[in-house]
Amino acid sequence: MRKLTLTGINLMLVCVLFISLSCTLITKGEGFAIYLTENDITPAKMEALSHVELAEKPIVSVRDIIKYNAQTYEMTLTTDAFERIYSLEIPVNGKSFMVCVDKSPIYWGAFWTPISSMSFGGVTIWKPLGYQIPNIITLELGYPSSNFYAGEDPRNNPEILNSLKEAGKLINEMSISDIHDLPHSLKG
């Protein structure tokens, strides 16, 4: 009888531990993610809105990111995530997205096609023109260049960096291979 009681107590302790762990996992947010807007709101209308509904699922989640370089604003993505971006239909006036942490919007921007003749003064992710290895997308300022961007740079917001750091995806410095990949001077 005493053995049965100890077994029951142990079983209850295991259940309590399992429930508390699962509650912790459930309440922990999804972290960094990029969402499209629910009703495909155009970039021209985004600034005028006080609230924007997010699409049901993110187009890029923290699980899709292999690494985020805080120096270059480059995200190396899984093949599946890169293909989602590559196959995204992007009009010449852009496709709005929201950068979020735990589904809370931090800033907005637009996917942009490099064949667009329209300029844009926000954060952009340019649609890749073809498959590339590694699967990298970059958070850029403005289109066609950063000269079209006005305002503060939101890309390294502390909430975003903390979320990526907690997920083990953040790189804060350039590696030797990154430095070798930089353009070389044509002088001397």
Shape: globular
- Counting DSSP H or I runs of 4 or more residues, the number of helices is 5
Low-confidence stretches: 8-27
- Helix/strand-derived class? alpha+beta
Helix content estimate: 25-40%
Proportion of β residues?
Answer: 25-35%
Largest sheet, spatial ordering of strands: 2-1-5-6-7-8-4-3-9
Distance between the termini: 89 Å
Q: State the order of secondary-structure elements, H for helix, E for strand.
A: HEHEEEHEEEEHEH
- List the domain count as a whole number: 1
Tell me about the largest β-sheet: 9 strands, mixed
Mean pLDDT: 82
Number of strands: 9
Radius of gyration: 21 Å
Topology:
Blueprint: H1 2-27, E1 32-36, H2 43-46, E2 60-61, E3 65-69, E4 74-77, H3 79-86, E5 95-101, E6 104-112, E7 120-126, E8 136-143, H4 158-166, E9 170-171, H5 176-181
Parallel strand pairs: 3-9, 6-7
Antiparallel strand pairs: 1-2, 1-5, 3-4, 4-8, 5-6, 7-8
Distinctive features:
single chain, 188 residues, alpha+beta, 5 helices, globular
How would you characterize this protein structure?
This protein is α+β, with helices and mostly antiparallel strands. Helices cover about 30% and strands about 25% of the residues. The protein has five helices and nine strands. The chain has a nine-stranded mixed beta sheet. The longest helix is centred in the first third of the chain and has 26 residues, at about 1-25. About 25% of the residues are buried. Residues about 10-25 have low confidence and may be disordered.
